[in-house]
Design a protein that fits this description.
alpha+beta; elongated
Length: 101
């Protein structure tokens, strides 16, 4: 699985990523940014600089990763989007399964 969220700071993204890796819930956390996000919140169009946190994990951990993320994220409504990785090299998949199951 691959999941994404965004944070207001690099420090928060690093803290979330490190916490999930240390808890054994994800195999890898990658941080990109800053990115510019334009979105509607409380009826107004907002623009913010954010950092994208991409997480790679075993599908069996999807619920646990989402629960952990929502409990530790500073946003009231954090982005949490997951997709299934349909094509993954065997060695990489083995590594993900060994480190996040």
């Amino acid at each position: 699985m691959i999941g994404w969220t965004t944070t207001a700071s690099r420090e928060e993204a690093e803290g979330l990523g490190r916490g999930l890796v240390e808890a054994g819930l994800v195999a890898c956390a990658q941080i990109n940014g800053p990115v510019t996000s334009i979105y509607r919140w409380d009826g107004a169009v907002e623009t913010a600089q954010e950092f994208r946190l991409t997480l790679k994990f075993a599908s069996a951990r999807q619920h646990e990763v989402g629960t952990w993320l929502h409990a530790h994220h500073s946003y009231q409504t954090p982005q949490w989007v997951c997709i299934s990785a349909d094509s993954v090299s065997k060695n990489y998949l083995n590594w993900v399964m060994q480190t996040s199951t």
